[in-house]
Amino acid sequence: MSGDVRPAPAGVDASIPSIARMYDYYLGGKDNFASDREAADRLLAVAPEIVTIARANRAFLGRAVRYLAGEAGIRQFLDIGTGLPTQNNVHEVAQEEAPDARVVYVDNDQAVLVHARALLATDPRTVVVDADLLDPETITDHPAVREHLDFDRPVALLLVALLHFISDDDRPYEMVAKLRDALPAGSHLALSHVVYEHHPEAIEEAEEVYRSFLHRTGHSRRTRDDVRHFFGDWELIEPGLTYVTQWRATGPAPTDPAKVWIVGGVARKP
Ligand SMILES: C[S@@+](CC[C@H](N)C(=O)[O-])C[C@H]1O[C@@H](n2cnc3c(N)ncnc32)[C@H](O)[C@@H]1O
After folding, report:
1. Of 107, 122, 155, 158, which cross-links 79 as Cys (Cβ 3.0–4.6 Å)?
2. In 3D, which of 28, 189, 162 has the Cα closest to residue 82?
3. Please, which pLDDT band fits residue 10 given cuts at 50, 70 and 90?
């Protein structure tokens, strides 16, 4: 496709945009095609702050993983909706804190799986699994997941910038409850989610754009209070569910938090 320097990996249709490649484009990556850029530009025309939001989300992910592998002492990570490899990937951040940290990456996008497997071919502590959040048992019962992670010891479940792509019709609260139930006490859940209340027009445009290739129905317009329900009865650790820029920020927040309409938090299973 014109303008694309890399060919599409086998099994990837470059003419249909993908969530992961659009996100790669927002982050300034190279693993995206003209279809992704066109779809992303449509959204950026309404909400140019999405670039800031994507970067702030990625920074939140890094701080959350650092907290989990460091202070919280977690050694096992189940990262669902991994995204294309970029800077500060989960296994890199976790293993900087704890070299024995084990990571399972789960995604349903072939481009993500191909790139992640290429990056990780030499790391025995990290595996990549092709599975779909819409069917949580295919993740928790997956032989590679069971082989790599010990479900009798605490696991950090990461659902970062993923659940806002799942509409209410697909019952995301039930799915996340199943995942929480599969994990032992002391496990943690880190998640981020865009919120509807600050810029409804942007969320509605995003729904239009993503709908055009995801073929989904229903909405995923959630407020911060709605997002809190994904944690169930798990205990949010300080500072709770905040704008991602405010969550354990190590320096001054880079931008007006209310313009970064995505919240994030980490909770612990009692
Ligand atoms: C916006 S990216 C987020 C990447 C990373 N978690 C982060 O926050 O930097 C969302 C990822 O979720 C994946 N995804 C979307 N729906 C999914 C599903 N139903 N099951 C598994 N992965 C999914 C996409 O392919 C994409 O890689």
Report:
1. 158
2. 162
3. confident
| Cis amide leading into 184 (omega within 30) | no
Q: How far apart are CA 70 and CA 76, in angstroms?
A: 12
Check if 61 has its Cβ closer than 6 Å to any atom of ligand 1.
yes
Q: What is the pLDDT of residues 42-58, one digit of tens each?
A: 999 999 999 999 999 99
Task: Give, to the nearest 10 degrees, the angle between helix 19-26 and helix 50-69.
Answer: 100
Closest to 218 measured CA to CA, from 166, 178, 173, 147: 166
Q: Which two tokens stand for residue 172?
A: 């995301």
The tokens describing 258, both together, are 């209310």
The answer to whether 34 and 2 have CB atoms below 8 angstroms apart is yes
Distance separating alpha carbons of residues 152 and 236, to the nearest angstrom: 22
Q: For residue 58, which atom of ligand 1 is closest to its CA?
A: 9
Pocket test for ligand 1, best of 162, 193, 210, 244 (most atoms within 8 A of CB): 162
Task: Report yes or no on whether pTM surpasses 0.85.
Answer: yes
Strand 188-194 to 262-268 pairing: antiparallel
